[in-house]
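Model: Ready when you are.
Researcher: Fold this.
Model:
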Amino acid sequence: MAEFYTRFIRETMDEAGQVTQWSYQYEEDFNYGYDVIDPLGDLDPHRLAMLWRNHRGEEKRLTFSDLKTLSNQAANLLRSHGLQKGDVVMTALRTHWSYWIVALAAHKLGLLLAPVYYRLTAEDFRYRMEKAKVRCVVTCREGPAAENIWAAAEQAQVPLRFALGPGEDGFLDLLAALPQQPDTLDRVPTLATDPLLLYFTSGTTGLPKGVLHDHAFPLANYWGARYMQDVHKGSRHFATGDTGWEVVSGTKFYGQWLLQGTLLVYDYDRFPPEQVLAFLAEAKATSIMAQPSVYRLLTQVGMDRYDLSSITNYAVGGEKLLPDLAQTVTQQTGHVLYEGYAQSEAGLIASASQVMGRKEGSVGKILPKYHVEILREDGTFAPPGEQGEIILVADGGRHPQGLMMGYLDDEEANRRLWDGDYFHTGDLATRDADGFLYYLGRSDGIIKTKGYRVSPVEIEEALSRHPAVAECLATGEPDPDLGQKVKVYVTLAPGYAPSPALREALMAFHNEACAGFKKIRDLAFVPALAHNANGKLIRGQFRDPNA
């Protein structure tokens, strides 16, 4: 009997197991909720879809039948409050199991889902709510999330507000309301080309941009699940990452369930390496996907102190992987790390894996889902070994499936990055004759810290509000724990002189008002900052050529 995923993905392999031909097969009204989850709820109802646990020891087990039932109930709940196709629902749910239920419900109703990080500030939430015209928000009660969400929703006039659990703050209790709803749902008409997801990602100019993906996007996540993370029917797959970030779509959602794998989800505030290792051992995980900073914490505890013999695939991404960490993981587990290269706008583009192979220093082999080239400055394609920008090519003028629909209400950015023929990633690389990518860095200075993308402009705009700052330049510098740390170079306004006290005051001024992953970790005073002929800051002026 054919595997379930072959309903949508057709592949031809050579003798070495490499994909030689492939295609997507789906109807024009494809909807992941109705066409993947609901059939699995009927065909494989008792298979465990998620084993969820949090740092307090609470646990939730969800089968594919549960996913179908609960998502129908959540859809009926949202619809009972007046939400209809095209409305925007924002979630800030950390990694609580309810995120997946709300997401599937939104997909079934044709709502646009906008996941965000739960520890954003009230101002961050407000901007995103107003930009996306949010009609409903669902939040957890961890940390400052509910308080900041409520303040932002008041300013942005978001009418419908849910939280997890009861409270005296005006939120409706999502978990109490779900069981009261009918568990059947008539199909709402949607199209594969309709917008499905809205992720906010940092850019190098201006405020965060909204990245739009369509209803066919979930199928494109098959490639990472199968070829990087080695997920299959019977897998027990663990991945890190807050549900507010696009990485979750590729590492613990669409592709993994399409392949009938089980998700192991651990919900936490500050990553607890001992508890996670114990969870992986107890649950008999078969694969893991995490950032280098997570692996460093795990190796500091000692991965070899736990029985991880069931894990046969270790994948890594989100930050620069340093050789010493890769060696330590191999020493403690007996397995190599399979690295990948991805973007919020395009998902996974290249990966190393047991099937695709791996090469030292490479971020992986280009996946068959995209036609990837290296573009030289003269507009021609670079041969193997020559540096250029990674681009995605539209063969026959077709928009590559898995690539974003575009940026929300930003036609200028859309024209700059996508001209109908090429999608410009802004990343520099070389590739070899076998199709392996060797990543060289961002051409525009994006900072990747703790697996998050941070715009240097956001940092600079915030710090420049201090009267002592004449001008500043934010950069990402290598850090063994964070991947990159945020460092800022500052020129001072007249009347101010460099001092340790002023350095601490400037860092506190910024860090006390920002989300944790945006915190400045280092600050240096400089007499001047270099600019190009157009007056723009030269972002690479402090870059270590040996880094």
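Researcher: Now this one.
Model:
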Amino acid sequence: MNSLPDIQSLSLAQQVAQMVVVRSSGYLFDHQIQYPAWEPPAARLQHWIQDLGVGGVILLGASAGELALRSQQLQRYAQIPLLIAADIEEGVGQRFAGATWFAPPMAIGAIARQDLQKAQNYAKQKGAITAQEALAIGINWILAPVVDVNNNPQNPVINVRAYGETPEIVSQLACQFIRGTQDYPVLTTAKHFPGHGDTASDSHLDLPILSQSRSRMAQVEFPPFQAAMAAGVDAVMTAHLLIPSLDDHYPATLSEKVLTQLLRQELGFEGLIVTDALIMGAITNRYGATEAPVKAVEAGADILLMPVNPETAIQAVCDAVAAGRISRDRILASVERIWQAKAKISRGTQVSGNRSDQAQPLSFLGHLAQPTAISTVTNILRDSQQVGGSLPLRSKPLQNSRQGRNLIIVDDILTCDVLGRNAPAVTLPQQFGYQLQWVDCHTPPMPRDHNERPIPTLLQLFIRGNPFRSTASLTDVAADWLQRLLTDQALEALVIYGSPYTLEQFLPDLPAQTPYVYSYGQMPEAQAIALEVLFDQIESDYNLTEFI
């Protein structure tokens, strides 16, 4: 990596540019870009890095192998080493295929209710594995852990991304994750300050308003952030929330009262303050593309994550300095923190980016999805899984291949990365005579034919909180199907992947003998483990390593 220049040698525009992190596709070619509204084509991205000198890139999409090449490409564009970030709350494999994909954090929280020591060990192992794999493919900034306390079951955006519903559990597990990363030169991030767990709307779409008192937040929301700071977290990400008890005018991301007075001065945080994505509806719908970055810097943010237009954002902040709204010292303070962070990650050389590894371009593969990582994923999934009813459903494949229906309900099969033709949720039930049927947001309502003969049905639900996609309509569809199958006495078994709140909602309606399996994970290995239990299969018959 290139060395860091003297901050004073940079122009104001260059200093402000270092405060900007832009989004990029992890894929190597423009025609592979999946989100063109947010991900620039190669020439524009190169211009932002090479000519404007933006300080970092947040990546999404592609395989881990492609990402290893992409990160090297981006670092070569830069005159000053880049922060390369990713939202990898569930491990590198959550975003980049081929690496290790863990169950959501709440799975470890569920284990903690039975065995806190085991859960702490899992959280620390997860942190270490995530850090090692991130570095292997060139990521040096982990946008995790989530330290929100998910005390609102209706939360559409945090949900299973949180470790739990109490500040004690969240604090202990998040700190162990942070400690697990600390043998590696990576940055970690506690998010979303001052606490996004008690919301019922999605800040990606609009601005949530929280009515909690400051004293309540001091008891519930603040402690996990304080614990993460004490554990050495490098950055804190802001939340796009309006909390009148803290600031009755500006959302936290744009609030000097929240970021400077509370986070910096009262809680004593000295690391990086990074905004949540400034393209999110909660901010852009109200403050626009140029005022939002200026307000965020005024409030105390060091990093402007994903501004609508990086060039106009940089110019707007420079204009604010020229007009006297923002002091030059304020900019220098942020860049000094950024330099401290970049100095930390430069202590070690990226596994895929050092000279010795360039002679062996596939060397990063030895750091991904290793047996220890696979074993940890499997153990977390098994230890957090819930089962009930009369199990197994069937232990021998049926000769007649048209005995039943495998009904899978998912929000959008076209964008679903956990289901495909070889996914266990599809293939394993086929061995037992269940024929596949999808239901998603594109499926037209099916009129009920009262003369229709009921079909024995395995119902599999993929429901969890996801940014930009409310689960309310999907849950309603699933509830309608469940009631229809129960009325027809056609429900043979229920499998839920994702939100435990869905299980809590549906469980009272299930007859006591109806088999059910619940998994926090939705990825293929979670499907395989859940269906092994349902069909009484031995692991050797269904190799989990195929799905890591």
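Researcher: Key takeaway?
Model: The chain has a mean pLDDT of 90.
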